[in-house]
């Protein structure tokens, strides 16, 4: 089956909702066809071959031939054809924004400008490896609560669809049913009557909700709330600081100007509040200020980190300082993940147990009432 190599159009935040949903579906499909780990291997091997003296077109041809999947082969082939047509590698990679972040493209552009593309490709692979590792840690932390939530929903649906209808005849002669029992009986009847379209409607509702939450307006509303959430907020802060400071240090080490580095730090922060912080910092620097002065007294960045940035600016060792801050916050990410899991596991267990207990008790209470009436 032929695989399209056309670049996926990423709509603006003010685009129609259905257009954004379709674009997100295409992006998800592309990332399933060519996962980030394969792209990381591709960049790593390309950098090694380029540094050993193989020209770019030949290196890409080798990678295309040895690609393990048809999707990866078409993906690499599109980049190779663009390079052979005269486009710089950064522009060829830029045709696939779902695969290469703005940071990766900026590093490749810097390598093309300085003539040190091999070194920059190595930096891109290091950045991607760290970024993929961080995302895996966060997804791992969210896997348990997601599993418990899905399990709870499945148990509730099973009880409502398969158990409650069997008690309907038993309870129909009861003069008065408890409130929870009546509510669950009505919900059971509704699900039995409309179950065929209920699941797809619920899935569509989840997709629409996630799309709206990820929109510009949704991020403005929800991102400050996530930061204040118990345990989860600390995890978001640790990840945002680690990613932003890492990108800032990598960009400055690569020779990019500080304004471009700050713009990219804002892009990768992952939270709208941190994005606004770095954008404000960029405007302050543009007007002659210091990075540390913009971060001073801001609750989003710990005072110790701000003091270290100030020291780095004064001593001319800012990239090295930023690297130390990044490594420190990577450890904080691990600690935040453990704290989050430590809070969410018992909470999800208690919530699930309480819901199931409420459903079961709503069946048992009327049965006690009926047995008491029969004895009377």
- The average pLDDT score comes to 83
Number of helices: 15
CATH class of the largest domain equals Mainly Alpha
Beta content comes to: under 5%
Q: Into how many domains do the coordinates divide?
A: 2
Quantity of strands, as a count: 0
Q: Roughly how much helix do the residues carry, as a percent range?
A: over 70%
Main beta-sheet annotation: none
Radius of gyration: 27 Å
Give the CA-based shape: globular
Order of helices and strands: HHHHHHHHHHHHHHH
By CATH, the superfamily of the largest domain comes out as Type II secretion system (T2SS), domain F
Sheet/helix structural class = mainly alpha
Straight-line N-to-C gap: 74 Å
CATH fold-level name of the largest domain: Receptor-associated Protein
Gross CATH architecture of the largest domain: Up-down Bundle
Low-confidence stretches: none
Task: Kindly describe this structure.
- The chain is mostly helical.
- It has two domains: 17-100, no CATH class; 130-376, Receptor-associated Protein, CATH 1.20.81.
- The protein contains 15 helices and no strands.
- It has helices at residues 17-33, 36-51, 56-65, 70-84, 89-94, 102-114, 117-171, 179-214, 216-228, 232-253, 258-268, 272-286, 291-295, 303-315, 318-375.
- Helix 1 (17-33) crosses helix 8 (179-214) and helix 8 (179-214) runs antiparallel to helix 15 (318-375).
- The longest helix has 58 residues, at 318-375.
- The mean pLDDT is 83.
């Amino acid at each position: 089956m032929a695989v399209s190599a056309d670049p996926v159009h990423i709509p603006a935040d003010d685009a129609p909702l259905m257009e954004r949903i379709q674009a997100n579906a295409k992006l998800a499909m592309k990332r399933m066809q060519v996962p980030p780990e394969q792209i990381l291997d591709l960049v790593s091997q390309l950098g090694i071959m380029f540094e050993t003296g193989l020209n770019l077109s030949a290196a890409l041809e080798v990678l295309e031939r040895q690609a393990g999947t048809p999707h990866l082969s078409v993906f690499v082939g599109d980049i190779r054809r663009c390079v052979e047509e005269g486009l710089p590698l950064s522009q060829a990679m830029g045709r696939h924004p779902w695969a290469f972040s703005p940071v990766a493209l900026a590093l490749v552009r810097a390598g093309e400008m300085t003539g040190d593309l091999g070194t920059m490709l190595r930096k891109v692979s290091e950045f991607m490896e760290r970024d993929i590792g961080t995302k895996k840690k966060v997804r791992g932390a969210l896997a348990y609560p997601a599993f418990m939530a899905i399990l709870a929903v499945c148990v509730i649906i099973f009880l409502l669809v398969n158990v409650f209808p069997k008690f309907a005849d038993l309870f129909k002669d009861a003069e008065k049913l408890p409130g929870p029992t009546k509510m669950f009986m009505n919900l059971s009847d509704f699900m039995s009557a409309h179950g065929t379209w209920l699941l797809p409607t619920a899935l569509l509702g989840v997709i629409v909700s996630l799309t709206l939450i990820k929109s510009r307006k949704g991020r403005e509303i929800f991102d400050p709330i996530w930061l204040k959430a118990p345990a989860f907020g600390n995890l978001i802060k640790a990840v945002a600081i680690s990613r932003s400071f890492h990108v800032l240090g990598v960009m400055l080490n690569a020779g990019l100007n500080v304004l471009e580095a700050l713009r990219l730090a804002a892009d990768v922060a992952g939270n709208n509040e941190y994005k606004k912080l770095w954008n404000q910092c960029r405007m302050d620097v543009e007007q002659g200020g210091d990075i540390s002065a913009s971060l001073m007294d801001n609750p989003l960045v710990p005072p110790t980190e701000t003091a270290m940035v100030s020291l780095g600016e004064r001593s001319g060792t800012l990239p090295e300082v930023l690297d130390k801050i990044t490594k420190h916050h990577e450890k904080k990410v691990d600690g935040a993940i453990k704290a989050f899991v430590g809070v969410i596991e018992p909470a999800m267990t208690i919530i699930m147990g309480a819901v199931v207990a409420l459903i079961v008790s709503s069946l048992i209470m009327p049965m006690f009432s009926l047995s008491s009436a029969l004895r009377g």
